[in-house]
Amino acid sequence: MELQAVEKSQAASSINNASECAKKIENEGFPKDFPATTKFANSEFPFVIIRLDRIIQNLSWIARSSRAMTILNNFMQRSAVPATTFDLLLVRRGETDEVKRQRNGIIKTMRVYLNGKIVDSRDAVVSVFDHGFLYGDGIYETMRVYDGVVFRLDQHIRRLFRSASLIGLSIPLDVDRLRIAIYETLIANALRKAYIRLTVSRGRGPIGLDPSLCAEPTVVIVAQELKEYPGSLYKNGIHLIISETRRNSKEAIDPHIKSLNFLNNILAKIEAKKKGAYEAIMLNVNGHLAEGTISNIFFYKDNMLCTPSAECGILDGITRGVVIELARTEGMRVREGKFTVKDIYAAGEVFLTNTTMEVMPVSNIDDRRYTVGSVSKLLRKLYREEVNAYISDVKAEGPSLWGENQ
Ligand SMILES: Cc1ncc(COP(=O)(O)O)c(C=O)c1O
Q1: Using CA positions, which residue lies closest to atom 1 of ligand 1?
Q2: Ligand 1 centroid to 389 CA: how many Å?
Q3: Which position has the higher pLDDT, 46 or 17?
Q4: How far apart are CA 381 and CA 359, in angstroms?
Q5: Does residue 263 form part of some domain?
Q6: What's 339-369 look like in SS3?
Q7: CA–centroid distance, residue 393 to ligand 1 (Å)
Q8: 399 found inside a domain
Q9: Helices 153-166 & 318-329 angle (0-180, nearest 10)
Q10: Higher-confidence residue: 60 or 309?
Q11: C-alpha separations of 125 from 86, 115, 213, 350, 379 in Å
Q12: How far, in Å, from the CA of 318 to the mean position of ligand 1?
């Protein structure tokens, strides 16, 4: 789609040079009457200044609509993006081949969102005094992007805010700004099929546990091309162990906090690797099944889909929630409860869930063997259908960014 010419504001028309205008905006902010988009046809190269905040302010649909993203991506295919901030996306068009090559270089270098700015990954550095680094004091989310749309974005954001509130951390961005920041990071990396990691740490402060030592949280968003798990794993299933490492009790560190403090899970992962397994199942301190190091666990036994309940001390995975919904809709009996190793050893099928692996069948737990059976195959298929339906809904939503008659 071609960007339509947009009327220039007085403020913009008084500055003929686009880069001068961009600099002025970066230093002083947007003049009051600056329109959503401004085209500078009389520059050496035509420039377009797109005022993201104006476009998005009352249209939080950008976060749910890949249409806006498609349009911005179309620009990016032809454009260098010398600066992106919350308020300003400066797109240069009509570039020479030389500039195009540079632009390809820019896009090939990973760009990272760091505290309100998109920076080159080499410049995305955090202080050694950041309490996230010193103490694991912070939270995160992992999201998956399908065809330019973040699956269940609002649920991830809600969980991030819940984690923040459970550790008394105030995220310096509201929900809309977080959505924009996530999409901005995707756009800056020209990604449509991606893995996103959003981290909020307590921030930089003197050594000492007291969170009030840190004035400002650090916010980082990394988006990278998603490397899918090999198809052979879905076909044959993965090998698990029951770990000796117990899951943190919810009275100690509530697993509902998706925290940077991951040593509990790392110790279990080390154990799994030593035993040649792919993932470890952790029991809680009462000996009930809890979860994997980065996944939730399901098993099928006596015509019932079983999964440890929230009281067992687990992260309530977003994928887990979707799978439970799908199974119930399909008429399966689902039980969230307290289960033992004996229960899972006696199951016919076992699978894991998480955002990036979706539904992953299990071939072994310790010496027990399982078949990759019809239940995990069906739920994997239904999960994919749910993803596709969600992506289509999001794409169908929202007004067009630039209407035909603008
Ligand atoms: C400990 C733990 N449990 C479960 C999950 C699965 O959660 P989700 O389905 O939201 O990715 C994760 C994901 O990272 C995790 O770290």
Answers
A1: 294
A2: 22
A3: 17
A4: 9
A5: yes
A6: CCHHHHHCCCEEEEEECCCEEEEEEEECCEE
A7: 25
A8: no
A9: 130
A10: 309
A11: 19, 11, 20, 41, 41
A12: 8
Verify that 237 and 207 share a domain, yes or no: no
Q: State the pTM of this model.
A: 0.78
Q: How far apart are CA 402 and CA 91, in angstroms?
A: 16
Is 274 in the active site?
no
Assess if residue 171 is contained within a domain.
yes
User: Is the distance from the beta carbon of residue 315 to the nearest atom of ligand 1 less than 6 Å?
Assistant: yes
Is 310 a residue whose pLDDT tops 80? yes
State whether 216 and 235 are in the same domain.
no
- Closest atom of ligand 1 relative to the 319 alpha carbon: 9
- Ligand 1 closest atom vs CA 255: 1
Give me the catalytic one of 39, 250, 258, 269.
258
pLDDT per residue over 125-152, tens digit each? 999 999 999 999 999 999 999 987 899 9
Average pLDDT over residues 86-106: 40
> Parallel, antiparallel, or unpaired: how do β-strands 358-365 and 238-242 relate?
parallel
Q: How far is CA 145 from CA 1, 194, 219, 315, in A?
A: 23, 5, 20, 21
CATH number of domain containing 382:
3.20.10.10
Nearest CA to ligand 1 atom 13: 294
- pLDDT given at position 384: 98
Centroid of ligand 1 to alpha carbon of 157 (angstroms): 14
pLDDT of residue 327: 98
Which range marks the domain in which residue 54 is found? Answer: 10-108
Q: Whose CA is nearest to atom 5 of ligand 1?
A: 295
Task: Confirm or reject: Cβ of 294 under 6 Å from ligand 1.
Answer: yes
Q: What CATH number should be reported for the domain holding residue 202?
A: 3.30.470.10
Q: Is the pLDDT of residue 69 over 80?
A: no
Among 168, 196, 227, the domain boundary falls at 227
The pick from 154, 259, 296, 357 for probing ligand 1's pocket by mutation, whose C-beta has the most ligand atoms within 8 angstroms, reads: 296
- Identify the pLDDT of residue 27: 61
Ligand 1 within 6 A of CB of 257: no
CB-ligand 1 contact for 307 (6 Å cutoff): no
What is the distance, to the nearest Å, from the Cα of residue 188 to the centroid of all Cα atoms in its chain? 15
Query: Is 113 a member of any domain?
Result: no
Reported as a single tens digit per residue, the pLDDT across 354-384 is 999 999 999 999 999 999 999 999 999 999 9
User: How many distinct structural domains can be found in the chain?
Assistant: 3
Whether residue 304 is found in the same domain as residue 379: yes
For 180-192, the pLDDT digits (tens) are: 888 888 877 777 7
Please report where in the chains the tokens 């546990």 appear, as a residue. 209
Instruction: Tell me what the mean pLDDT of segment 242-248 comes to.
Output: 97
